[in-house]
């Protein structure tokens, strides 16, 4: 049974609510849950929801504007209005959630239909909407002692206040992809030392397009995913990518060794195993969607730009590189920025400039004039775009880089990725331990969401980069500070 969040019930509903089985919980929904996910109304399965009047007032106060929060507030209000308009009979008896057409929700939605004066400690000001909702929860708990009444809120302090008053309070969990991000798919699997002994029987091997392929059979095949990278350390190190996998067999394809200078990408070579995996994924024409996770300095942006330039300027696979990122400031905002869209985005693109400087100095033989010409050519093929103007666009034959993707919600991530037209490759970069967006956590980030949902897709790839390669100072600071 999944946990879901809800809202408060009214005294007018007492006869109906009291007759319900004790196993069906009554969730009182805080406003921030609805503004975070309007579909939360239909995520509580068999349980009942209660929306206090204060929640409706706050939804009304946040409905204006073009922000994601405002759109969600309007959508939540539309859902409630749709269900109320379809109701035949007394609203105090509850509105079946099934009336919206979602058969997974068999509970009822209760709206506050009369004034509730919940006794709260004198130090909690009654004029504050949060305290009014807590008062409703307290009243419902006293009115229906045989039912579990639970406050659902994304606000940590509100949950703390509710628990301090002896009320049950929970976070909204339905948007979380994983409870523990340590379980997040890494895209990499270390093979056991006896892999060839247990999986080498009747093995087939062939060569094609410069790669060696192995068809292996054994128990590990069932747990492998398509495009997952596998490796084996030891006297005979082995690195490969899973091309096909089923319950009994798998096809492994050997990788190109980008740690060697002869296989450099725009002058850049891989410095560790994970970077080599990422390089192979970025340069694979069969992979349309790539996610790279890793701490600061692990090489995500540098490798992605190098692969993009190689495939845009040399291989002519893509027509241009488009870079975008979420504009969430780390410190105080510096106000409005002058200029065009690209000029406004420039302050956010410091990481892009730093990496372009590195890439521009990889060719020592070009000389100052040659590097200047290369720099101008690179700048002409890289476009910086704002997320605000992505709706309705279609990118054809583009190399799209979404930087700082951990600050995107799942809905925003879907909006961006669905911009991809024919011949476009999308690369999402981020570090889920550096989330700056309010109410987003490691478990509910859009980056975590796409990594989990896209794993195993034949045209998607993912690598979690383990080591920072910035400098010995940066590595030591990351570990000790």
Characterization of the model:
The protein has 3 domains: 11-170, Rossmann fold (3-Layer(aba) Sandwich), CATH 3.40.50.1010; 181-254, no CATH class; 282-480, P-loop containing nucleotide triphosphate hydrolases (Rossmann fold), CATH 3.40.50. The model is unreliable at 1-19 and 329-334 (pLDDT under 50). The chain is α/β, with parallel strands linked by helices and 481 residues long. It has 15 helices and 18 strands. A 6-stranded mixed β-sheet has the order 7-10-11-12-9-8. It has helices at 14-19, 31-36, 53-61, 68-86, 129-143, 156-164, 195-199, 273-282, 300-314, 341-345, 350-360, 367-381, 410-417, 446-454, 472-480; strands spanning 26-29, 48-51, 95-96, 108-111, 149-152, 168-170, 188-190, 204-208, 211-217, 229-232, 238-245, 249-254, 289-294, 320-325, 382-386, 398-403, 425-430, 460-465. It is globular, with a radius of gyration of 27 Å. Strand 16, helix 13 (410-417) and strand 17 (425-430) form a beta-alpha-beta unit.
